[in-house]
TrEMBL record:
Gene3D superfamilies: Vaccinia Virus protein VP39
Taxonomy of the source species: Bacteria, Pseudomonadati, Pseudomonadota, Gammaproteobacteria, Oceanospirillales
Pfam families with a match to the protein in the record: Methyltransf_25 (PF13649)
Region (Disordered): 1-28
Example of a GO biological process term: methylation
Protein name, per record: Methyltransferase type 11
Biased composition (Polar residues): 1-23
Organism expressing this protein natively: Marinomonas posidonica (strain CECT 7376 / NCIMB 14433 / IVIA-Po-181)
Sequence ranges assigned to domain Methyltransferase in this UniProt record: 58-148
Highest taxon listed in the record's lineage: Bacteria
Keywords: Methyltransferase, Transferase
Molecular function terms, GO-annotated: methyltransferase activity
């Protein structure tokens, strides 16, 4: 692990007074290959890699910028990239040097996008960190040009009727005496946005649903080492900053209880929607 993983830079979220540790780009890079490939699959389905000039795209919750770079370099897009982490934005700027990319720090809860600017707006593996996604989605929808595409991928998209055993089980581990004090600055932040509710919301905002996918398999968790690496880089990213290598023990305890309760269902979900002409 690189040293910047332990640099405790913090950001404050809109809906909470708890100051959250800033995600580390270097840690994230080590475990997000599967998420990147899933995002690329979605882009292929809308022909985003066509090298003709496509105009403007926005990637919200851009992480370290792998998708941003691909959209600019391979797809010919001018990309506006936004993420809550300065570490991530620094990585985007470095990765995309010389490409038509602008990158800025932005809490997605406070997202503000120029209306009718973007032919493509994407948000991959971010929405489940938002307690309320309505304002964020409104900004994305309003920013689309006519015939523009919205690509959303997120976890925890199971039907409301199935509950949220994954989060409830993790919270039980986080509340154990050995962790509860140490994790005060990095509480569990994972939210349930059912796909049917998200689809209905987007339709109410005037979009047409092009396609949906549920229970998407993300590569990288086929073995225990790969699963831990993926969890450390994403689901437990804030806790990794606070706990350092002790996060591995937290992950072990969490996986044990999740498996015992058959609660390790991530429910990775995708919606592709289009703004009518």
């Amino acid at each position: 692990m690189t040293n910047d993983t332990f640099s405790k830079s913090f950001t404050q979220t809109k809906d909470s007074k708890v100051t959250q540790p800033e995600w580390s780009a270097s840690e994230y890079e080590e475990g997000n290959e599967g998420q990147f490939q899933a995002a690329c699959h979605a882009m292929e389905s809308i022909n985003a890699w066509n090298t003709r000039d496509k105009g403007y795209a926005a990637d919200i919750g851009c992480g370290s910028g792998r998708l941003v770079e691909a959209l600019a370099r391979k797809g010919g897009w001018q990309v506006d990239a936004k993420d809550v982490s300065q570490s991530m934005i620094d990585a985007v700027i470095k990765r995309c040097e010389g490409l038509p990319v602008t990158a800025s720090v932005c809490d997605a809860s406070d997202l503000s996008l120029e209306k009718n600017k973007y032919a493509l707006v994407s948000s991959c593996w971010m929405l489940h960190w938002l307690k309320n996604a309505t304002n964020t989605l409104e900004q994305m929808v309003n920013a689309l040009t006519p015939s523009g595409n919205l690509v959303l991928q997120w976890s925890c998209g199971q039907p409301r009727s199935e509950g949220f055993l994954l989060r409830d089980t993790l919270q039980e581990v986080f509340d154990r005496p050995k962790w509860i004090e140490r994790l005060k600055s990095a509480p569990l932040a994972m939210y349930h946005h059912p796909i049917e509710e998200m689809s209905s919301l987007l339709e109410s905002m005037g979009l047409e649903i092009v396609s949906t996918r549920e229970n998407i398999l993300i590569s990288g968790g086929e073995n225990i080492a790969g699963l831990k690496r993926s969890l450390r880089s994403a689901a437990f990213a804030a806790q990794t900053v606070v706990l350092g290598d002790d996060v591995d023990e937290l992950i072990d305890e969490s996986l044990y209880l999740l498996n015992a309760r058959n609660a390790l269902r991530i429910s990775n979900t995708e919606i592709i929607a289009r703004k009518p002409d």
